[in-house]
Amino acid sequence: MSQSAGSYIVTGAAGGVGAAAVRQIADRGGNVMAVDLDHATLARAVDAGSGGGELVLRPADASREDDVRAYVAEAVDRWGGLAGVFNIAGIEGEFAMSGEASTANYDRVMSVNARSVFLNLKYVIPVLVKGGGGAVVSTGSHLAWHGAATLGAYCASKHAVMGLTRAAALEYATSGIRVNCVCPSAVDTAMGARVSAAINPDDVSLGRQVLIDQAPNGRLATPDEVAAAGVWLLLDAPSHINGILVPVDGGQAAA
Q: What is the DSSP letter of 35?
């Protein structure tokens, strides 16, 4: 059954996919707490939309337990509960071979990409249970299934998101809570541009073309497309859809 309203947390809200998700939820009349590290970046990126829901810009680090505990409590105090959370916060980290990669990079990527999901599950799910149900959507990657040379930490983090998603889906299925994951391939965002530059530092356009050539439909995903898949899982997916990973990759997972 479609939900046209409710209150939601979106992490990584200042990025391309995050800002698109905030707009789409707000356009449906939902209240949104938009979480990201920098208030100025949030304010530039996020538009409240036209649906009438309340938008709260909340500078916070989704990988820090005190921050997550605080913004979940703030959302509950403000709106009386939550209908769900969309975990989008993520970084690609450094590009390096496994034998040369830094431990600091591994720790940072795992913290931002996977620990943040764990913490939001930890603090949001009890709120959803108390309210009688809800939804969690996390952002994985097509690299949740595959590997990628020089991106070992990123691959590991997205495999971890897949595992967290599946475990929580099984744990809370009888509590009316759906836990799913949207898994994009390369997206036309700032992160996509950085990956393109890493592939070919001398010609970013050629690096971008490598990513495009990997997609059977011959283009990068747009932020709106990835956000729409996640918002569908969050608001509209039937109650029997639980514990799945939804590729948004132009057909790449079918190859």
A: E
CATH class of the domain at 7-185+221-247: alpha beta
Sequence ranges of the domains in the chain? 7-185+221-247
* Cα-to-chain-centroid distance, residue 135: 13
Angle value at C-alpha 158, between 85 and 210, nearest 5 degrees: 115
Residue 178: C-alpha distances to residues 39, 100, 181, 251 (Å): 30, 39, 10, 25
Is the dihedral angle over the CA atoms 124, 65, 115, 225 positive or is it negative? Answer: positive
Percent of the chain with pLDDT over 90: 67
Q: Give one DSSP letter per residue of 59-119, joined into a string.
A: E--TTSHHHHHHHHHHHHHHHSS-SEEEE--------B-TTT--HHHHHHHHIIIIIHHHH
Q: Per-residue pLDDT for 75 more than 70? A: yes
Q: Please tell me the predicted confidence (pLDDT) of residue 38.
A: 82
- d(CA 158, CA 166) in angstroms, rounded, equals 13
What distances in angstroms separate CA 226 from CA 20, 133, 208, one per listed residue?
9, 24, 18
Nearest C-alpha neighbor of 75 from the set 88, 56, 62, 60: 56
Q: Tokens 């209150």 sit at which residue?
A: 7
CA 124 to chain centre: 15
Catalytic machinery residues? 154
The residue assigned the tokens 């929580």 is: 168
Q: In sequence order, what are the beta bridge partners of 177?
A: 134
